[in-house]
Amino acid sequence: MSGLLPDDQIAVLREQGFVVARQFVPAEQVAALRALAERHLQEHVAPIEYEADLRYPGAPESRTAEGGLTVRRLLSAYARDPLFAQWATDPRIAQWLARYFGEPAVLSTVHHNCVMTKHPAYGSLTGWHQDIRYWSFSDTDLVSCWLALGPETRNNGGLSFIPGSHAAAFTPDQFDDKKFFRDDAPQNAEWIARAVCPDLEAGDVVFFHCRTLHAAQGNRSDRVKLSVVHTYHPQSCHPIPDTRSASQPGVPLA
């Protein structure tokens, strides 16, 4: 996927629900974003979501337990620093998504809009899920942009995706009460067997559809994994009033 032109990348996204755009971001920009993220992480610059807040498998029991202040996400990236805002509205993202949507894109400041961390200790597992599960929009054609700020593999908790799952008509019984795709359901086994975990390098971007099933294991390396992720929708798509998705205004991309 590394040598594909944007239109070919978009075709892959439409077909399999995700695509890797290799070396999408120059090394110096990645280095600046990573240095900023590491500083905010070290200084616990709010707003922050801690692993203990969600208590996924492998997370501490509470913020007062051992490892309780392990960060999961640095929230509100767009408002956190101009450097993050510049990346979230980067013309390269705007142009790519405008070609995909066929119209200008809008950044959601409610969903994702964060630096995702994965710590070697207390970095939790994330089960199979579709991001659209808790989102409320007039359409379900939303795309997230995941920027790797360092190497990402299965070993350090890199994302795994199930190709084609964005176009599947799943039934409610294939998900648990928290809307995770059940790994104990026989009808899900064939889907999960298709999963792939693309290896990423710093500067690689994954564009993935909000209905694409994805998951992540724990981090078995000795270094914190950092990624920046934002979600976008076409300007003709709107958050449904009086829902969390509409709680903050979006940012139109030029």
UniProtKB/TrEMBL annotation:
Reported EC number(s) for this entry are 1.14.11.55
Kindly list the GO molecular function terms attached to this UniProt entry.
Answer: 2-oxoglutarate-dependent dioxygenase activity; iron ion binding
Q: Which SUPFAM superfamilies match?
A: Clavaminate synthase-like (SSF51197)
Which of UniProt's keywords are assigned here?
Answer: Dioxygenase, Oxidoreductase
Identify the Gene3D superfamilies for this entry.
q2cbj1_9rhob like domain (2.60.120.620)
Mind telling me which Pfam families this protein's record contains? Answer: PhyH
Top-level enzyme category:
oxidoreductase
Cofactor(s), names only, from the UniProt record:
Fe(2+)
Name of the protein this chain belongs to: Ectoine dioxygenase
